[in-house]
Amino acid sequence: MVEHQRGAMSVLAEGKPLKPREGQFVGGIAFYANPLTEKQRNCLVILLDKHGLPSLTDGGDA
Predict the structure, then answer these.
(1) pLDDT in tens, 2-34
(2) How far apart are CA 50 and CA 33, in angstroms?
(3) Is 28 exposed, middle or buried (0-12, 13-18, 19+ CB in 10 A)?
C-alpha cells in the first residue's frame, strides 16, 4: 500500500463527514497505486489536516 493510500484510508476510517466531492476524491485515491499529482497530494494533505490526522511524510511517493 502506497503512502497516499494509507492517508486516504485513514480519512475514510475516521468516519468524519465529508462533502460529496471530498468523498469521491478520497475514495478514488484510496485504491489508486500510481503517484499522485502535486495538486492531488496537496488536496489530500489539506483533508488530513482538516480532520486532525497525521500528514503524509515528506519525500514519499505520494
Answers:
(1) 899 999 999 999 998 999 999 999 999 999 999
(2) 23
(3) exposed
CB 6 within 8 A of CB 29: no
Inter-CA distances, 34 with 3, 6, 23, Å = 11, 13, 19
- Look up the pTM and report it: 0.84
What pLDDT, on a 0 to 100 scale, did the predictor assign at position 60?
Answer: 42
Residues whose CB falls within 8 Å of the CB of residue 45, separated by 6 or more in sequence, listed in order? 55, 56
| Separation between Cα atoms, residue 1 and residue 46, nearest integer Å | 21
